[in-house]
């Protein structure tokens, strides 16, 4: 929208004729606007002066006088239009003006942001370029330094090579000089050495002749003295050996006679009391083992059906015994399973198969003791509980189990020395057969040779620890087999302490320690002062000796260590009794 103010009255008749006579309140129409625009400074007939001096001075024209009322009214309308125009407020113009300001402010802000971003990018690019130049400079410096070091190292190597060459040349030179000097010295030394050796040879020859004469005389005298001493020593040794042999033979004969007389005199009382001797116990166990092998195991293994049935049931026992733990419920379940499902099922086994299964059961229990108890002493407790219950509930199992124990341990469960003949009077075929009866096994590590004494002691101690734990368990409803009653502990100690030949072996010392470890404190509670006397006898044999120079366990290192354990165990038992 454009507004214009009417021009003042022009004296030109040409311009006046274009004026509209009617009042428009100072507002021109479009034609007048266009004509007025054409008269503006941008029109074609506009001009400019060349200098300010050419600008004409404005002429002061007198104020026109209003002649008519129409003119007066027209002037008033014009003034009112001007006043209205100056006081008019157009929102659109205000909005357009504010929009221009906002656009200008946003443009300036955007321009400032863009300029800051451009400056930052330039600074960053300048920094990166500076860093790149620094890195390039450092890399070039490193390369130059490396090249310098390489050249320096090469120069050093060349200098070292030259120095070594000079040193080698000097060394060879001095070596040639020294060799010439050494050659001359060797010639002089060889001449002097030859003269010295010649003198020494002559002197040595003279001394050797004198020494041979003295040695010949001394040899003759020494031979005569040695012959005389040898004759005297041989005579004395022969007399001592004869005297000792006669004494030992006389003592042995006397001991055997006394033992035989004592056994004879006590035979009736012993039979009346139901007691047996050690040899009788060994013969009984050996006989049971022989009968079990010939009358039971050999027929079972020779018959395919019996062997199959026996093997099937035997294989059920192994995992149960191997799974045994020190848990009363587990012990009861395993014992009931072996008794009710394997040995005594609802459909009873034939007598031969029943006996064979009892033999296998005893062997499995003892093998478990040899492997588990030797590694951990506490493993003997649950195994002894199972064995005790089965010994109490299974008929003929005590005799078979004790026979298997004697087979695995020799005469130590009784205890007694294995005699020179079998229970039927047959002598042993050789020493190996007798060693087998004593419980020795073949060692796999030594390619079938007899197992070492330490291995034998450990295995037998595992079986005997199981046996001693069985003796300690009190009977339930009825008395146990005589071989598994607690009084066997006293019998065992009385027999082994009365046999000096057994006491001098390392196995005896180890088994005495095992028995004291399991039964020592319990026996003290049962027998009191009588057991203290037995402990005093054991302690004397381990410290002072039961004879002159004879101790429990013998003089070997294995026996000495076992004897030390016996002494410590007796001291522990007596300390607990106070």
UniProtKB/TrEMBL annotation:
Cite a single GO MF annotation.
Answer: translation initiation factor binding
Compartments annotated for it: namely: Nucleus, Nuclear pore complex
The record's Gene Ontology biological-process terms are: poly(A)+ mRNA export from nucleus; protein transport
Query: What ranges does the record list as Acidic residues composition bias?
Result: 29-45
Q: Where is the composition biased (Basic and acidic residues)?
A: 200-271
Just give the chief location class. nucleus
Native source species: Mycena maculata
InterPro entries, sorted: GLE1 (IPR012476), GLE1-like_sf (IPR038506)
Keyword set, alphabetical order: mRNA transport, Nuclear pore complex, Nucleus, Protein transport, Translocation, Transport
- Name by which UniProt lists this protein: mRNA export factor GLE1
